[in-house]
Amino acid sequence: MLADSHCHLNYPGLVEDQPAVLERARSRGVTAMLNISTRESEWDAVVATAEREPDVWATIGIHPNEADSHGLLDAATLVDRAKHPRIVGLGETGLDYYRETSDRERQQASFRAHIDAARQTGLPIVVHTRDAEDDTAAILMEEMGKGAYSGVIHCFTASGEFADKMLDLGLFISLSGIVTFKNARDLQAVAARLPIERLLIETDAPFLAPVPNRGKTGEPGFVADTAKFLAELRGETFESLTRRTAENFHALFSKTKDEASA
User: Can you tell me the distance from the alpha carbon of 259 to that of 261, in angstroms, rounded to the nearest whole number?
Assistant: First the structure.
C-alpha cells in the first residue's frame, strides 16, 4: 500500500512508455499516484491520464517558474476547472527564487490565487518552495489568517525551523528521493522526527530517483525505495510506514476517497 503523492506522468521520460511505467509501479505495491501539472497547457493531458487510470488522480496549477507566462491567473479559473471529479488538488504552486525565471511579485500573486482557490474548493494546495523559505512561510501564515486551507510542502528540503512552521499551520510534508542521498544529512535529521500523521512520500518522477536508482529516470515505482529508506531511518517497519503515509495521502486529498466510493 504505497502512495506516490507527486509525479509527472505526462513529462518526457515517462509519457512515452506510460502504460509500462504504471504497471511497474503497481507491481511494487503502488496503489495511488498523483499526477501533477505545472502549466495550463498540461491540464488536459494530465487530467486525461487520471480519467483513464483508476489509481491516478490529477492536480491543476501553475509552477512558480511558469508564473510570468500565464498572465494574472485568477482563483476563479482554478475553481471552475477543479470541479472535475479526477482533480483532487491545486498546484504545484509556490515560490522559486533559485532559477528566477519569473518575477517574484508575479509568483507571489499566483501563489495567493491558488490558496484562494483552495479555500473556495476545499482542495489542498501542493507547494513548491526553493530558496524562498521566508516569503513562502510569510504568505502561508498570512493567508491562513484569512481562512483555513490544507496543503503539502512537496519535495521537502528546507530547514527544520521551516518544517516546524508548516506543521504548526497544519500542513503535510512530503519527502522525495533526495532524502536517500548521502549528502542529505540535515534533511535526514528532520525526516527522522517528522510526525507520522503529517508525512507523505513522493518521487517527483521523472526527477530525483532515489538510491539505489540514482541517475536513472525516476518512476512512481521508486517510491518503494524511498519508503524503505525512511522506515529504516525512523525505526519503523516498512509495512507500517507505507500504510500510514498512504492513509495520510487519502486523508489530505480526500476527493480520492470520494471517487473510490462512488
Answer: 5
N- to C-terminal Cα distance for the chain? 20
C-alpha cell at 210: 532515489
Q: What is the pLDDT of residue 259?
A: 57
Question: What pTM value is reported for the model?
Answer: 0.96
- Nearest partner of 209 among 217, 201, 197, judged by Cα: 217
The verdict on whether omega for the bond into residue 259 sits within 30 degrees of 0, i.e. cis, is no
Asked if residue 47 lies in contact with residue 61, where contact means CB atoms within 8 angstroms, the answer is no
* DSSP 8-state assignment for residue 38: -
pLDDT in tens, 41-68: 999 999 999 999 999 999 999 999 999 8
SS (H, E, C) 155-209: CCCCCHHHHHHHHHCCCEEEECHHHHCCCCHHHHHHHHHCCHHHEEECCCCCCCC
Contact status, residue 179 vs residue 229, Cβ threshold 8 Å: yes
The predicted structure's pLDDT at residue 12: 97
Q: Which residues have C-beta within 8 Å of that of residue 262, sequence separation ≥ 6? A: 85
Q: Which amino acid is at 191?
A: A
Separation of alpha carbons 131 and 96, rounded Å:
6
Backbone phi, then psi, for 132, in 5-degree steps?
Answer: -145, 35
Q: Are 227 and 241 in contact (CB under 8 A)?
A: yes
pLDDT exceeds cutoff 70 at 137: yes
